[in-house]
Design a protein that fits this description.
Peroxidase, domain 1, Glutaredoxin, four-stranded mixed sheet, 4 strands, 2 domains, 182 residues
Length: 182
């Protein structure tokens, strides 16, 4: 079940996405949302912008100064709205949801492969091709290293986790052994 804040982030992202479609600027709005999130995303700035004890005009002036002339008007209005409603901390999640919607529109999917040791270029390309075949979409693959996997890999595509790690296999074996001992 999604949390209330991720549902709200999805709704905001969907609204900006609709504007991007209307304005034929999906990629631009996505890039600018990410830029706004990076400009405003530090904990220090978020603390100031989200502080209800500070006057709203002061918080909005700071947000305007940070992003002025750097983002299109719809993104600027979104930031102002989030500041006004005390929800500016959601901007990063909104940018992430927008990126997910953009990938979906383009027939792309993000995948995160966690491996025990670095993959060669050929192994990464082969994994990307396999995932593209499995999903029927273009795959934007990111690879991270986690030595605790012992060997093998895990791949997360959307909400689906594929576990081909030695650690995962050992955990499944342990579960079967415990269940059989009862």
């Amino acid at each position: 079940m999604r949390s209330k804040s991720s549902t709200a982030a999805r709704r905001y992202a969907e609204a900006v996405f609709e504007l991007g479609m209307r304005d034929d600027a999906l990629g631009v709005y996505g890039d600018e949302l990410e830029q706004a999130a990076s400009l405003i995303g530090s904990d220090k700035v978020l603390d100031v912008l989200g502080d209800p004890a500070r006057p709203l005009a002061e918080r909005q002036a700071l947000a305007d100064k940070l992003i002025e002339r750097r983002v299109p008007d719809p993104v600027h209005r979104l930031v102002a709205l989030l500041v006004e409603h005390g929800k500016i901390e959601r901007l990063g999640a909104i940018a992430g949801e927008y990126h997910r919607l953009l990938n979906e529109e383009r027939g792309e999917v993000e995948a995160l492969a966690t491996v025990a040791s670095p993959l060669s270029g050929a192994e990464t390309a082969a994994l990307q091709r396999k995932l593209a075949t499995m999903t029927g979409k273009t795959v934007d693959l990111r690879v991270e290293i986690d030595e605790s996997l012992i060997g093998g890999l895990t791949v997360r595509v959307g909400d689906t986790l594929y576990d081909a790690s030695v650690r995962g296999r050992l955990e499944r074996l342990r579960e079967r052994l415990v269940a059989g001992a009862r």
